[in-house]
Design brief:
333 residues; BirA Bifunctional Protein, domain 2; seven-stranded mixed sheet; 11 helices; 40% helix; 20% strand
């Protein structure tokens, strides 16, 4: 078929279709016109499309077909809208409230992690990450855990294989980072950790943790205290009081816990709340990373951003942080 002949057929269908649409004076008649023109198997527009393959100039034929299709579709949509407007529809009660659209926001734990990371970035810390499926040596051995430490038992740790575990803390990032970069090193390592804990109001088997570490020549416990005091006053307020008490971790010596005086919003007023554990890095950990513990020293700390978020926002059940309930999340805009 010649392209001119096809164009004449397309123009004729345009004229005929527009007349059919204009003559339709009811929804039923308009539906009949729709079927006659646009039906997939028997519609006039479909028949015109099926002859495209027989035209010698397919580009010209395609332009003619698209023009007809667009003209008929636009006319049909306009006729449908006009008929709906003239016939009217159900009355709209403008006083009825619209359907509420639930809109969430960033998770409170994510907000806390971002805020903590920003404070330590100001002090020259960078972000370091490590695998969640961790070798047993990095998770325990390199961190000075004795072979008979109860944390290594299967009732505490999730084993993926004979020597692979789901990491129980973010501390393995310490050794991995020191194996990769020479001191001075200052890193913050946020990430998820896993333990065999019951899922209740105060415990979860998977939760976020943030590890911090600084290693250089001549680092002391005074540096650790000054850094963490700065963090606490930036995070909780410039007048916030802090205190350090003795604690124990296999990978730090001496070890301490840090408490901050805060109001949990439960009506009991200000009181001391532990927010993290910390200490000077044990020489054995530095040696595991291949460093000379006589030359270098360092400190590390670990905190749970979920518990910090609970204390900040007055959340009493940790399970709320895992529900993905938009009604709960929208409170933290």
């Amino acid at each position: 078929m010649l392209a001119d002949d096809y164009r004449r057929q397309a123009d004729a269908l345009t004229t005929h279709g527009l007349a059919l649409i204009a003559e339709a004076n009811s929804p039923e008649a308009l539906r009949d016109v729709r079927d006659r023109l646009f039906a997939r198997k028997s519609g006039l527009l479909t028949a015109l499309q099926q002859t495209l393959g027989t035209v010698d100039d397919k580009r010209a034929a395609g332009l003619a077909f698209n023009g007809t299709k667009q003209a008929l579709e636009s006319a049909f949509e306009a006729a449908t809208a006009a008929m709906a407007a003239t016939r009217g529809g159900p009355a709209i009660d403008g006083t009825l409230p619209a359907r509420h659209t639930w809109r969430g926001t960033r998770h409170p734990v994510s907000q806390v992690i971002d805020e903590i990371a920003e404070i330590f970035r100001e002090l020259g810390f960078t972000i370091a990450l490590g695998p969640e499926a961790e070798h047993e040596w990095y998770n325990f051995g390199a961190l000075n855990f004795p072979d008979d430490h109860p944390a290594m038992d299967m009732h505490d740790t999730l084993y993926l294989g004979e020597r692979t575990v789901l990491r129980t803390h973010t501390s393995p990032v310490q050794v991995r980072t020191l194996q990769q970069y020479a001191p001075p090193v200052r890193v913050l390592a946020p990430g998820n950790v896993y333990r065999r804990d019951f899922f209740d109001a105060t415990h979860a088997p998977a939760f976020a943790q943030i590890e911090g570490m600084a290693v250089d020549e001549g680092i002391s416990f005074a540096d650790l205290r000054a850094t963490l005091n700065h963090f606490a006053r930036r995070f909780y307020g410039a007048t916030r009081r802090t205190r350090f008490g003795p604690s124990y971790f296999p990978f730090t010596e001496p070890s301490a816990q840090m408490d901050v005086e805060i109001d949990l919003g439960d009506g009991r007023g200000m009181r001391w709340v532990e927010i993290l554990g910390c200490g000077l890095m044990h020489p054995a950990v530095l040696e595991s990373a291949g460093l000379d513990s006589q030359r270098y020293s360092g400190w590390a700390f670990g905190m749970g951003p979920a518990r910090i978020a609970m204390a900040r926002y007055g959340i009493t059940d940790i399970r709320l942080l895992y529900d993905s309930d938009v009604r709960f999340l929208q409170q933290f805009t």
